[in-house]
From TrEMBL:
Pfam families reported for this sequence: LMWPc
Span list, region Disordered: 128-155, 216-243
Compositionally biased intervals (Low complexity): 129-149, 220-231
EC number per UniProt: 3.1.3.48
Protein name per UniProt: protein-tyrosine-phosphatase
Residue stretches making up the Phosphotyrosine protein phosphatase I domain: 62-280
Length: 352
């Protein structure tokens, strides 16, 4: 290389200080670019009504929410059947019943005429809304009914996950479609707050069909009877496959006699499921009564008044008992879309 060429190369090459300055500038530019792209983590409050969640934990009554697609047929029939059966079982003041729908098809509308006809045919109370009940359960619609106040006319309302999931102890859906609608919104809550899951509350009403506690062997003593009652297996989600679904009788029907018959068949199925549900709640009440009786016998019941009456004490603890029982139940399986849900367990099929 000639002297002139070396001088030209030396003039073109940057000095070490220049290279350092350029590298520092590039690093700063890269850092600024990353800051623009990367979102800094921000801790926010959960998407649910935290105040109502805290209040619900202190409520003595059990709050049951019945969910259908539009809140004008199945949920209305279920509410009518459940309220009447609860009254017959002496649980009307211990349980608050509410309804809603997952789709905004019939917001503000009254029940379907065929639903009212079916309710009357089965001798059920006329359907009405419990939406006016307070979040804490005191002064709710059930208490108002016990006091003789006229029921409010039913108006379809939309499911609101942020309020309904924390305000209800048990959320009973009619089929996999409504379960999917509810789970789609609620599952994100459990991802945010894993210590207090909410999806375990979601069950299908059909799970309680023909529910009954196991009976002790003939001649068994009181201790064996109490042990058998305590060991009663709770309903498990999806344990009977598609038979647990209560199908929408309005789907595919456009009125007329066929629709009326379909609604009546659905009403009979709902009544049967509600009978099992009330048997389940009565079983919880009896368990609480036995627990309080045992505490009194052991001398641990120091309070006076209702606390000295096991039956009365059981009525005031039904809500906490239901919440505790559901928490101990097997978690609800994540729901796949109905068309993708296998009807058989492929792993159990024999090899040919």
């Amino acid at each position: 290389m000639s002297l002139s060429q070396a001088a030209a190369v030396g003039a073109a090459a940057p000095s070490s200080s220049a290279r350092s300055a350029t590298g520092s500038l590039a690093a700063e530019t890269l850092a600024e670019s990353v800051e623009r792209v990367v979102v800094s983590p921000v801790f926010r409050t959960g998407p649910w009504d935290a105040q109502r969640m805290a209040q619900q934990r202190t409520v003595h009554q059990a709050h049951i929410l019945l969910v259908s697609e539009s809140d004008v047929c199945r949920s209305v029939l279920a509410a009518a059947a459940l309220r009447q059966l609860l009254a017959e079982a002496g649980l009307a003041e211990a349980v608050v019943v509410d309804t809603c729908g997952t789709r905004p098809y019939n917001l503000g509308e009254e029940p379907e005429p065929n639903a009212l006809v079916a309710a009357e045919a089965l001798g059920l109370l006329q359907p009405h809304s419990a939406a006016a009940s307070s979040s804490g359960g005191s002064g709710g619609s059930e208490a108002q009914q016990a006091g003789g106040s006229p029921p409010q006319p039913h108006r379809a309302r939309l499911f609101t996950a942020a309020e309904d999931m924390v305000g209800a102890d048990l959320v009973l859906v009619m089929d996999k479609y409504t379960a999917g609608d509810v789970m789609r919104e609620v599952s994100s809550f459990d991802l945010v707050n894993r210590s207090q899951p909410l999806t375990y509350k979601v069950r299908r009403l059909g799970e309680f069909c023909d529910w009954a506690p196991p009976q002790p062997p003939p001649g068994a003593g009181a201790a064996a009877a109490a042990a058998a009652a305590a060991a009663a297996p709770p309903p498990e989600y999806g344990s009977e496959g598609d038979e647990l679904d209560i199908e929408d009788p309005l789907y595919g029907n456009v009125g007329g006699d066929d629709e009326a018959r379909a609604v009546l068949r659905t009403a009979r199925a709902i009544l049967r499921c509600c009978q099992g549900l009330v048997a389940f709640l009565s079983h919880l009440r009896d368990q609480q009564s036995q627990l309080h009786q045992a505490q009194l016998s052991a001398g641990s019941g120091g309070e006076v008044g209702a606390a000295q009456d096991p039956a009365a004490a059981a009525m005031t603890t039904l809500g906490p008992a239901l919440r505790a029982h559901l928490t101990d139940m097997a978690p609800a399986a994540w729901l796949a879309p109905p068309m993708l849900s296998p009807r058989v367990d492929r792993e159990q099929l024999p090899d040919f």
